[in-house]
Amino acid sequence: MEKKVAAxxxxxxxxxxxxxxxCIFVVYVIAGKLGLSFASLNPSTSAIWPPxxxxxxxxxxxxxxxxxxxxxxxxxxxxxxxxxIGTSLxxxxxxxxxxxxxxxxVTKFAxxxxxxxxxxxxxKFILLAAVLSTTISANVGFITLLLGNLTSWHQFVxxxxxxxxGDAGGDIIIAPLILIWARSSKIHIYFRxxxxxxxxxxxxxxxxxxxxxxxxxxxxxxxxxxxxxAFWFGRRGATIASLIVSGIGIFYTIHGFGPFxxxxxxxxSLLLLQIFLCILSVTxxxxxxxxxxxxxxxxxxxxxxxxxxxxxxxxxxxxVLIEANSNILYASPSVKRVLGYDPEELIGFTGFNLIAPVDxxxxxxxxxxxxxxxxATMNVEYRVIRKDKRMIWVEAIGTNLLFDQEINAVVVxxxxxxxxxxxxxxxxxxxTTDEAMLKSIGDGIIATDHTGKITMINKSASDTLGxxxxxxxxKLIMNAIPMKDETGKDVPVDERPITKVLSLKRKVVTSRxxxxxxxxxxxxxxxxxxxxIEIEGKIVGIIEVFQDITKEKEIDQMKDDFISMAxxxxxxxxxxxxxxxxxxxDGDYGPINTRLKHPLDNIQVSAKRQIHLINDLLDVSxxxxxxxxxxxxxxxxxxxxxxxxxSLMPIxxxxxxxxxxxxxxxxxxxxxxxxTKNIINNLIGNxxxxxxxxxxxxxxxxxxxxxxxAVTDTGSGIDPQDVEKLFGKFQQLNGQLxxxxxxxxxxxxxxxxxxxxxxxxxxxxxxxxxxxxxxxxTLPKAQAMRNTTNxxxxxxxxxxxxx
Length: 803
Fold this sequence. Notes:
Blueprint: H1 2-8, H2 11-36, H3 51-62, H4 67-79, H5 85-109, H6 119-147, H7 156-183, H8 191-212, H9 222-254, H10 266-313, E1 318-322, E2 328-331, H11 335-339, H12 343-346, H13 357-371, E3 377-385, E4 391-401, E5 409-416, H14 418-424, H15 430-440, E6 444-449, E7 454-457, H16 459-465, H17 469-472, H18 477-480, E8 483-484, H19 497-504, E9 508-509, E10 514-517, E11 523-535, E12 538-548, H20 550-585, H21 594-625, E13 630-636, H22 637-654, E14 658-662, E15 668-671, H23 673-689, E16 695-703, E17 706-713, H24 747-757, E18 761-768, E19 772-780, H25 782-786, E20 794-796
Parallel strand pairs: 14-16
Antiparallel strand pairs: 1-2, 1-5, 3-4, 4-5, 6-7, 6-12, 8-10, 9-11, 10-11, 11-12, 13-15, 13-20, 16-17, 17-19, 18-19
Helix pairs in contact: 2-3, 2-4, 3-5, 3-7, 4-5, 5-6, 6-7, 7-9, 7-10, 8-9, 9-10, 20-21, 21-24, 22-23, 23-24
């Protein structure tokens, strides 16, 4: 204890503390003088007050030892502005107390300087620091000004409100900037990322300049750009974006420009600006934190999968199968590492000849006992002679499967324990080691034999399912662990992942739409990775790894709710922007200046793209919440295709492409005509987008009770690695994006979901990189649907939008 106290008061520690205090004092004074330069209501009251965020971040990072710098900085700022010694001391006391209490509350309830790691902690930080602790400074400050005759009671509301908003803005905008950059890991700078960042922030600068210079006075258009930066560049990008918007907004607002300067005093304009900046900063930080949490979860999942793969591959150091006559029938590749022999060299070799003479008799007797017990397992340790004549110790686990028709041999798993014998003198059984390792894995692991009987289940799996391990071993997994789909219906046996693995003889990764049933009857969503266990080309069992993804589902729901809310809030101003631009181009506001036409064109293109993205987001939200209108009727497919192809023909001609409709059969389909046209429009639009030369062919045929509409192009094709994410939400295929305008990443997802709502589907029929792709939309024929229902029309309660 004495040594610790002495270290805290050592000259080196004192010098470091003094240096930190001096730096914070200088920064605080500069920021404070800058903030008070915007004061108009009272010389000591400003709606822009960054020192609050500097004080809070400094104490969170360096502790309470920097309080002197905060107090002295606040005193100097006020005494050199308009206050007396008494009022300056009072205000300095309030500012310091505010930062101290804010630090205590954030540290106790919101993880201190790491408060921006989760969304919950962000809102705790806002409530405790930006909302509650800032009232201390506002109260103390106003009372001090009142006692010093620098204000009066009738100014209480405007002075107090201005003071409080200024401090809250400092905590919401400046404190996160300092804390996130101070706590971030090392930054790796890459040329491509630098170019992308410069371009993104340039776009943000241009949009913000247009907004606050008065050219495009719609402040909230800055929010989607900021959210975009938060998505790509994380929390650091979000704080820098907020700072850029704040700087530009303050500059133009104090000069009488921007959306908040109309018919307001300077103080009122700055208050309105401060409210907007706080909303922008919170939105960007929250979105960035959600994205960070999702990506962190994905990395953790990938790490778990990698560890499990390594565990399975190294479960046993070597494996040999021994026939009844003691000849080796099979040797795994790992025997090369243990014994020095190639596996082929041991085939037909008498296994006992490998054992050292001193242990041979003992080992023969042990394995003879094993041979008399079908299905029995024995552990034995003995010495063997390697190919290089070196003697080593091995631990072997022998299993008598002589009467198992699939194997018809004694299975011996063995590993080199020479180092353990030499250094430790402790023998660890292979099976016990494996079980301990499996129990330590957080993911649920189940192993079955080739019939589906459970042969192994780790503790995580049994705990998650609510069963004891011994209650499940030996039972069929289909019976012991029921599986249901999203509607609560039992998943058929032939649709179970284990059935697919055993029939397809390849790994299967399930979707997020499967649910396991616990012992108590409750359900939880799971993600599977089911892998076959093969010996000599025969599947002898499976290994199933599953994770409870309840939390991921909750995060996805939060994300979908946020996207829905943001889309609804953004759609109205974006529609207004597009309408105003159309009026400008129609000449409602007079002739367009030649110099303005090009930027206005760009703005209109961006606005339409933004509206398209918002509409896609709303469609996704409505699709998932069950609020899209799908009116099913019988209609002539050829007419719909002909109208769609004709509407897209100008785009094809502009790119010198041939767009052709093939087929003359009068086919009636049973679907929604408008959504069908939208789906086909999306498929042809994608083909036009990714085809630079050649032709695009739209054809249709009938097969059994369905109509098949194929869209074939001669474009860039799809990388096989991208096929799995082709129909995912927000998925952009890297191989196709070069030089192409960005999309929302929602088109194919929406198209497939809508097609399935109409009892159809969309699939990638074929694709070859550099040669083109073929997408096929299937829809039920009208006659087929009449055979199964008496209703000619069916309506699903959704509410679509146009746009």
